[in-house]
Amino acid sequence: MSRVKNHFSIKNLEHLSGIKAHTIRIWEKRYQLIEPNRTDTNIRIYSLENLQKLLNVTLLYNAGMKISIIAKLNEQEFNDNVKKIALSSSSNQKALNLFKLAMIDFDQNLFTKTLENLLEKHSFETIFNTILVHLMNDLGVLWLTNSISPAHEHFLSSLIKQKIHSLSHSLNSKPVKDTSKTFVLFLPDNEIHELGLLYLNYELLAKGYKTIYLGPSVPMKSLESLLEIQESLYFVSYLTVEPSIDKIDDYLCDFEKIFLLNTSNNLWLLGTQTQYIQKKYPKISLFRSIPNLTKEV
To answer: Which residues contact 158 (CB under 8 A, 6 or more apart)?
Structure first.
């Protein structure tokens, strides 16, 4: 496993905090809010503690506190103000910063408290679509800019998945309200990015539908047994990296022949790879987002 990232460039801090590098430099020089080390060539290198401090400073700053006031707080006052805002804040950006801080520090307790605080004011559907989706998109940028390690990403993704599993489990014990559709949720072979699919399964369960959740990396051949036990299936898949651009239409042609032609079955697709589909398929529908799909339901 890759080592946990514990030093950051000023660009890493910019991506993680949303504060421009130029502003960070001003805060350093004028207020000594954070004190980076420097390389032999005088390039700033920030520690994990520097990043944690900046995220908390950003939390206070976005809450309306002047940077000059923040700089004058002693350690106890600083921590008390951060805790107060963390427990009372309803701002999406503040919640995003808290989740990022929880990720960087591997702090499950902070993640749980932040989520519980949000759930007191909003539904999980609202939190997922307005905050967690943006958080995962930010993780993509942080990954590409080498601002976080694989351990950080896996830690945060696992916590979100655990929550969705917990919510879905509670819904599984309730009777099915709508028997008009049965949804089969799966990811193609070698596709492992299941967070969106997992959340969609929760949404469908919440609406009272029966779902058959198969999860990531399901070979097409494995789906054939479903044809023997049920009719009128709605297959649902999230294509993030698979099938590849040059193979996606071949995959869909095969899927159509086996599962859709001469049946009442349908295939619903989401994900970035859908933009590369060249052909038209009468029983395959494309959706730009989870809310777009759930409206169709």
So the answer is: none
